[in-house]
Design brief:
The chain has 258 residues and is mostly helical. It is built from nine helices and no strands. The chain has one domain. α4 runs antiparallel to α5 and α6 packs antiparallel against α7.
């Protein structure tokens, strides 16, 4: 399954969406999501403390699965309205396959992020706040990029399944926006992930609904780049880069479909 998903082969995946093969593929998807996200999650928290690494290794697979379940009905409605022909079960399965690809990518990145964490200045130093912001931004970019790559594989599958590149693109954009928005905010509720300087190691914060993910990213940008224009420029460059990647990937997929 990992090789098929990374190559973006559509024929086997379409077979997995059929009733006869859905059970086995679902179990394999769940196993890969747990393994890949646990490996990557461990590297998120190891900078703060080994206990934090263990906490995050448990929370990251849970976050992915809750995001899939929470968005399942909404994405099923989008699939029906936007004309891809996917039913609710097939929509849930397709999104789970997309997150499986995501888990393969972040799992493959985990040795790199572990090396990065082990070579980051130790927690508790004078530069802890700056390095905490740097770590948050780097992992946000890596997770966003892994999600974009996984969703591009999903776009190819949607195009083949529906036979309509426009309907597939509309559905892809709706699903991506919903998953990113809900996933980001749920990640905020499930914090901490890296361990903020000055706060204790905890599985969950006592005030999970206070603040939001986007405010935290902007604060991390200010800690890294400084207050004012530099922070805004860095944040704008990050958003523009992600949007450009999505645009060119969608354009390339539509050209292949033609």
């Amino acid at each position: 399954m990992p090789a098929i998903l990374c190559r973006g082969e559509t024929t086997p995946v379409l077979q997995w969406l059929q009733h006869a093969q859905s059970g086995k593929s679902l179990l394999r998807c769940l196993a890969i999501i747990v393994a890949g996200c646990m490996a990557y999650g461990f590297t998120l928290g190891i900078w703060r403390a080994p206990l934090m690494a263990c906490f995050v290794a448990v929370k990251l697979p849970l976050l992915i699965l809750l995001t899939v379940l929470a968005n399942g009905v909404l994405n099923g409605l989008f699939a029906q309205i936007l004309g891809t022909g996917l039913g609710f079960r097939q929509t849930l399965h397709t999104i789970l396959i997309s997150f499986t690809t995501f888990s393969i990518i972040v799992g493959a990145l985990s040795p790199v992020t572990l090396f990065m964490a082990l070579n980051t200045p130790e927690y508790g130093g004078t530069e802890s706040t700056r390095w905490h912001g740097f770590t948050l931004l780097i992992h946000t970019l890596l997770i966003a990029y892994a999600g974009i790559l996984a969703n591009m594989k999903m776009l190819r599958l949607l195009t083949v399944f529906s036979g309509d590149p426009r309907a597939a693109t509309r559905t892809f954009l709706a699903w991506t926006a919903g998953n990113l928005f809900l996933g980001a905010q749920m990640a905020w509720v499930f914090r901490p992930w890296f361990g903020s300087p000055g706060l204790d190691v905890q599985f969950l914060r006592p005030d999970p609904l206070r603040g939001n993910f986007y405010e935290a990213v902007f604060t991390a940008t200010k800690n890294v780049a400084g207050v004012g224009a530099p922070a805004l420029l860095l944040l704008g460059a990050i958003i523009l880069t992600m949007a450009t990647i999505i645009f060119f990937q969608v354009a390339a997929q539509r050209n292949r479909a033609k």
